[in-house]
Q: What sequence folds into this?
């Protein structure tokens, strides 16, 4: 890891490189991969962010997420973060991108398939706990459930692609 990130414009074109600190100090746009995993029942794996996280502590988020290193592809980052944060390797498909203006981040959204929570190796500095949520449960709990903006923004991309429950 070089410690550098690609700096991009709102069209996701690389316009330079900067350190994590420079990106934050100068409010530059960088890239993020956001990973959602679904099981055979059409449920989504969400993780509750650790209490020690600077942003969104205790909020529910996707299976994993992370900033791209300079020169890294969205897919490379998604695979790396999935391995680092929850200890698994899965096939992932990029299903869309969006620009998060408040976060100054271009977000690549990935969807993969995963069933067995026992196969996860949780990084405790990143993740408090993980659970599968059905779309109905998410809708029911949404008024009181704290979720990251990435979960909110990703749902229109993810929900239409969920497999119907296997009976």
A:
């Amino acid at each position: 890891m070089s410690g550098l990130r690609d700096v991009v414009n709102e069209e996701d074109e690389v316009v330079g490189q900067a350190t994590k600190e420079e990106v934050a100090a100068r409010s530059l746009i960088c890239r993020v991969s956001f990973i959602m995993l679904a099981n055979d029942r059409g449920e989504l794996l969400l993780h509750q962010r650790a209490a020690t996280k600077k942003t969104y502590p205790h909020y529910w988020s996707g299976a994993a997420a992370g900033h791209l290193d300079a020169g890294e592809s969205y897919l490379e980052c998604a695979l790396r973060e999935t391995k680092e944060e929850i200890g698994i390797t899965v096939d992932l498909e990029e299903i869309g991108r969006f620009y998060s203006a408040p976060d100054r981040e271009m977000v690549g959204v990935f969807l993969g398939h995963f069933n067995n929570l026992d196969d996860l190796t949780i990084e405790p500095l990143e993740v408090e706990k993980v659970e599968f949520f059905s779309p109905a449960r998410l809708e029911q709990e949404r008024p009181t459930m704290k979720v990251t903006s990435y979960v909110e923004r990703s749902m229109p991309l993810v929900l239409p692609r969920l497999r119907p429950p296997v009976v």
Helices lie at 20-25, 74-86, 135-141, 149-158.
